[in-house]
Design goal:
alpha+beta, globular
Amino acid sequence: MNKNNIKTMSFINKADGPTSIFFIGKDNKDITLRQKIQRMRNTVRRKKIIKYLKANAHTMDQVALYIVNELGFTEVDKSDSQYQTEYHQMRTSFILQYKPELLGELAHAPQLENHDEESVKTFFEQLEARQKAAEKIPANIFDIDLHIYTKEYNKLEIKISIEKQYEYIGGSASGSKKSDIKKYNATFRKIYLYYGVTQKDIDEYTKRYEDVVRTLALR
């Protein structure tokens, strides 16, 4: 396959990790080289960001308004199937992170020891059982405040998800051009720059501070 023939690509940001980029029709070795170069560039940018980042924090409510009013995104209705799917998946993830005792033995991650058909089937059945168990936990016992926003730029579609109670910001996008990655990352950086940090975050090197620095280093 021609290495220059990129059919589709998708990329996703999370507050707890770097960008993941998935190419269809792209050589894996080339991706690895790109990732190495990206890491080196990120290191240089991180140093500059750490040097010049100033306290200018905003609340999650303010971030939500910024995404709509300043960046032109539209909020996805909570009755939409897209919202419902992400809500249940994120709620399960947050239960595992903050209240794993609510799931009992199902809180333990299933292990895929072999890759035969039966083992794979059992693995996914265990994941499904955990998801269903989480969905049965009443909202008055554990719930999240998820909001999803979308915007289209020609053939690029960007989705931003924020969870206000636990202050999570994530995003994903799909497009057909290399430039879509830069456009998506630029949008995500704007959101995180506006989210910002307090002086306490800077002084104590908090998780919020690390998330902001990491995201601002993306290109």
